C-alpha cells in the first residue's frame, strides 16, 4: 500500500488558495441559469455538462490569448447584482467543500458594469456573496481587485481596493495578456498602493518571460508574482547542478511568493507537462512556491486535484503538501497574527491529524 496522499485524503486537508479568478470558477449550471434569466443567447450550448466540457476544451489550447477568450461567456452572465452575489456565494461554498480554509479570490470590477452597475456596487455585491457563502465558518475569503493591463483604469481600481480594504478586500492585482502590456504602464497605481501601505500581486512570467518578472518586482514593487513560471529561465544547469541567475537568486532570497497554477500553466503553454513543470525544481531549491487553481471551470480542477497531480508527478508526501500550504498562508494579504493563528491553530494540526490517520491505516 502506498503511503502517498490520495485525492480523498487531500480533500480533507486544510488548504490555502491565493490565485483563483471569480469569473473562471463558475458552475456550468449557474451560467446556463443566469444566461436564460438575462437573455444572453451566445452560449455554445445550454446543456451544463456539455458546456463544462466546452470550457475545458476551449481553454486547453496552449495559448494564453485563446485561454482568455473563454471568459467572454462567464463575464457576460456576471452583469447584475443578483448574479454577482450568487457566483461569489457559490465560489466560497465550492472552495470550502474542497477543504480550502482560506482563499483570496480575484476579479476585475471594471468588467461587470455593462448593465449599469457602478464599481462600488460590483464590489459590494461580490463581498456580500462571499459573506453568504462563508457564513458557516468553514472558510475565510479575502478579495483581490484586479485591473486589466490593456485598459487604463488601474489607478481607479487601486483606489477602490484601498477604499474597501477594511470590508473584505485584501489586495490588488493586474491581469490580462502580458505581451505588449508591461506592468510598468501602471506605475501610478502601484506607487499609490505603496503610499497607502496596501498589498498587491502582479501577473508576471506566465505568457511572457523574465523581463515581466523583473519589471513587476524591481519597477512596480510586487509583493507576490502571479504564476512566475518563467523564473526557471534564469536557472542554468551546470553539470547537473542548478545555478541561479541574479533575478532568480533575488526572488528566492527575498522570499517573493510564486502563485503557481500547474494545470492552467499547461493549458496556456507556460509549462510542457506536470512532470516537467518548474514547480518541481523550484520546490527543491526552496523558492516560496504556492499551489493554486487559477480558473477552476476552464481547467476542470480543484485545489485538491492540483495537489494530487503533483503527488503523482513528483511523489510528494504530506510534509511537501503542508510546506506548500504554509507557504501560501505565510504569503496571504491578511495581518500577520491572523496568518499565524491559521497556521498554528488549523493548518498544522489538520495535517498532523491526517498524517496520523494515514500512518495508522
Give structural attributes.
alpha/beta; 8-stranded parallel beta sheet; two-stranded antiparallel ribbon; 17 helices; Ado/ade_deaminase; 48% helix; 15% strand; nucleotide metabolism; Adenosine deaminase; zinc; 361 residues; 10 strands; A_deaminase_dom; TIM Barrel
Strand order of the largest sheet: 1-2-3-4-5-6-9-10
Mean pLDDT: 94
Choose one word for the global shape: globular
Q: What is the third-level CATH name, the topology?
A: TIM Barrel
Number of domains: 1
Termini Cα gap: 10 Å
- Which structural class do the helices and strands define? alpha/beta
Q: What do you see in this structure?
A:
The chain has 361 residues and is of the alpha/beta class. It has one domain: Metal-dependent hydrolases (TIM Barrel), CATH 3.20.20.140. 48% of the residues lie in helices and 15% in strands. It contains 17 helices and ten strands. The strands form two sheets. The protein has an eight-stranded parallel beta sheet. A two-stranded antiparallel sheet has the order 7-8. Helix 2 packs across helix 3. The longest helix has 24 residues, at 336-359. The termini are close together. The model has no long low-confidence stretch (mean pLDDT 94).
List the helices and strands and how they pair.
Blueprint: H1 7-12, E1 15-21, H2 28-38, H3 48-59, H4 64-69, H5 71-76, H6 81-97, E2 100-107, H7 119-133, E3 140-148, H8 154-163, E4 169-175, H9 187-195, E5 200-204, H10 210-219, E6 224-227, E7 235-238, E8 241-244, H11 246-253, E9 258-260, H12 262-267, H13 279-284, E10 289-291, H14 296-299, H15 303-314, H16 318-330, H17 336-359
Parallel strand pairs: 1-2, 2-3, 3-4, 4-5, 5-6, 6-9, 9-10
Antiparallel strand pairs: 7-8
Helix pairs in contact: 2-3, 6-7, 8-9, 16-17
Amino acid at each position: 500500500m502506498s503511503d502517498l496522499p490520495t485525492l480523498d485524503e487531500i480533500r480533507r486537508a486544510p488548504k490555502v488558495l491565493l490565485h483563483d479568478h471569480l469569473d473562471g470558477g463558475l458552475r456550468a449550471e449557474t451560467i446556463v441559469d443566469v444566461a436564460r434569466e438575462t437573455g444572453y443567447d451566445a452560449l455554445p450550448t445550454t446543456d451544463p455538462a456539455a458546456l463544462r466540457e466546452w470550457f475545458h476544451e476551449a481553454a486547453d489550447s496552449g495559448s494564453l490569448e485563446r485561454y482568455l477568450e473563454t471568459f467572454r461567456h462567464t463575464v457576460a452572465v456576471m452583469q447584475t447584482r443578483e448574479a454577482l452575489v450568487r457566483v461569489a456565494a457559490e465560489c466560497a461554498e465550492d472552495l470550502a467543500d474542497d477543504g480550502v480554509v482560506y482563499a483570496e479570490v480575484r476579479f476585475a470590477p471594471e468588467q461587470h458594469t455593462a448593465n449599469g452597475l457602478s464599481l462600488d456596487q460590483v464590489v459590494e455585491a461580490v463581498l456580500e456573496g462571499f459573506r453568504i457563502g462563508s457564513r458557516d465558518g468553514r472558510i475565510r475569503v479575502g478579495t483581490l481587485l484586479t485591473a486589466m493591463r490593456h485598459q487604463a483604469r488601474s489607478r481607479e481600481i487601486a483606489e477602490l481596493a484601498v477604499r474597501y480594504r477594511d470590508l473584505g478586500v485584501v489586495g490588488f492585482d493586474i491581469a490580462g495578456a502580458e505581451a505588449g502590456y508591461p506592468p510598468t504602464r501602471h506605475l501610478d497605481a502601484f506607487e499609490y498602493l505603496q503610499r497607502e501601505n496596501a498589498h498587491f500581486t502582479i501577473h508576471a512570467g506566465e505568457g511572457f518571460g523574465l523581463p515581466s518578472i523583473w519589471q513587476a518586482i524591481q519597477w512596480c514593487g510586487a509583493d507576490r508574482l502571479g504564476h512566475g513560471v518563467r523564473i526557471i529561465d534564469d536557472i542554468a544547469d551546470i553539470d547537473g547542478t542548478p545555478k541561479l541567475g541574479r533575478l532568480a537568486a533575488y526572488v528566492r532570497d527575498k522570499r517573493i511568493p510564486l502563485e503557481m497554477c500547474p494545470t492552467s500553466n499547461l493549458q496556456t503553454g507556460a509549462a510542457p507537462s506536470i512532470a516537467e513543470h518548474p514547480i518541481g525544481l523550484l520546490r527543491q531549491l526552496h523558492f516560496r512556491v504556492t499551489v493554486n487553481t487559477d480558473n477552476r471551470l476552464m481547467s476542470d480542477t480543484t485545489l485538491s486535484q492540483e495537489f494530487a497531480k503533483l503527488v503523482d508527478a513528483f511523489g510528494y508526501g504530506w510534509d511537501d503538501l503542508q510546506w506548500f500550504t504554509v507557504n501560501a498562508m505565510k504569503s496571504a494579504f491578511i495581518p500577520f497574527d491572523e496568518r499565524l493563528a491559521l497556521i498554528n491553530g488549523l493548518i498544522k494540526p489538520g495535517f498532523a491529524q491526517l498524517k496520523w490517520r494515514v500512518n495508522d491505516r
